[in-house]
Design a protein that fits this description.
Blueprint (H helix, E strand, L loop, with lengths): L16 H14 L16 H9 L13 H10 L5 H13 L1 H17 L4 H10 L3 H21 L7 H12 L1 H13 L4 H21 L4 H17 L1 H20 L7 H12 L1
C-alpha cells in the first residue's frame, strides 16, 4: 500500500477510501470481543440481541426463528454470478466495499428490530439509536458478522489483521471462553476486566505469531496497524458515528439540527 500521502499530522480527509477501509477494519480487529455480551452498552439493546437480529437463530418455520441476515446478504450478492470467475469478482468487490455493505447490513438490522412484534424491543432499539457508544458497537458487530460470513464462505476480506484475529478467536474459543467465564465470576472490577482483556490479547497475539505468515502477509499487517495509528481512534470513531447517525436519521426521520461532528467540536470547546 502506498502511504506517501500520509506525512506529518494527517487529517482524515487526506486518507484515501481504501486507507479508511483498512483503518476501520483494524479498529474492529483491535476491539474484537469474545462474547457478544461484551459489546453491551448500559441501557441499550444487548450485544447478543444485535447478534440475533444480524445472524439469526433456529430454522425457518420453527418458533423463534430469526433469519441469518449476514448469510442472506452475502448469498444474495453471489447470486448475480453464473460462473466461479464471476463469483470471485463479485466477492472481491464486496470485500472492497465491505464498510458500505456493513452499514447497509446494520441499517437492515435496526429496521428489523424496530418492526419487532414486541413493543419493548421496538422501544429499546429506538432509545438505543440515540446512544453513540451503542451505534459504534453495532457497526463493529455488523462488520464482524459480515467479515466472518465472507471468510466462512471461502472468500477473502482483503484485510490480514482482522482475518487473523477472527481465526485466532475461533481456534482458541474454548480457552478464551474460560478467561471470560472466570471474569464473570469475579467482582468484575475494572482491574479484573483489564486483566481479562490482556489475557485475551495475549492469546490472539500468540496465535498471530504461531501461524505461518509469509513476508507479504506480515508486511500488510504492519501497514494496516500503521494506517490505523495514523488515523487515530478518536478521529475514526467521530467519522464513523457521523455515518451511523445518518443511519439513525433515515430510520427515525429525525434530523439533528447540528451534525454530530460539529456537536463533538462544541463539546470540546465547552470543556476548555
Amino acid at each position: 500500500m502506498d502511504l506517501s500521502n500520509l506525512i506529518g499530522s494527517v487529517p482524515l480527509s487526506k486518507f484515501t477510501k481504501d486507507q479508511k477501509r483498512v483503518a476501520i477494519l483494524t479498529w474492529v480487529a483491535e476491539n474484537i470481543k469474545i462474547r457478544w455480551k461484551d459489546y453491551n452498552v448500559d441501557g441499550c439493546a444487548s450485544g447478543f440481541s444485535q447478534r440475533l437480529w444480524g445472524a439469526g437463530r433456529g430454522e425457518a418455520g420453527n418458533r423463534g426463528y430469526m433469519p441469518d441476515r449476514a448469510k442472506e446478504n452475502v448469498e444474495l450478492l453471489k447470486g448475480f454470478a453464473s460462473t466461479d470467475e464471476e463469483t470471485n469478482e463479485i466477492m472481491k468487490e464486496v470485500a472492497e466495499n465491505i464498510i458500505e455493505n456493513a452499514v447497509i447490513f446494520a441499517e437492515d438490522l435496526l429496521k428489523a428490530a424496530r418492526n419487532a412484534k414486541t413493543e419493548n424491543v421496538r422501544k429499546k432499539y429506538l432509545n438505543s439509536m440515540q446512544n453513540q457508544e451503542f451505534m459504534l458497537a453495532l457497526l463493529q458487530i455488523s462488520l464482524l458478522l459480515y467479515s466472518k460470513e465472507i471468510i466462512h464462505q471461502g472468500h477473502s476480506i482483503n484485510h490480514e489483521y482482522l482475518t487473523v484475529r477472527i481465526q485466532g478467536s475461533e481456534v482458541n474459543k474454548h480457552e478464551l471462553s474460560k478467561i471470560w467465564i472466570e471474569y464473570s465470576k469475579s467482582p468484575q472490577a475494572q482491574d479484573n476486566y483489564l486483566k481479562a482483556v490482556e489475557k485475551t490479547n495475549q492469546i490472539l497475539n500468540d496465535f498471530e505469531k504461531e501461524i505461518v505468515l509469509d513476508k507479504d502477509q506480515m508486511d500488510r499487517i504492519i501497514e494496516e496497524k500503521l494506517v490505523y495509528s495514523l488515523v487515530g481512534p478518536e478521529a475514526l470513531e467521530n467519522y464513523l458515528y457521523g455515518i451511523m447517525d445518518s443511519v439513525r436519521a433515515r430510520i427515525t426521520g429525525e434530523i439533528r439540527l447540528i451534525p454530530v461532528t460539529e456537536m463533538n467540536s462544541i463539546g470540546k470547546i465547552a470543556k476548555l
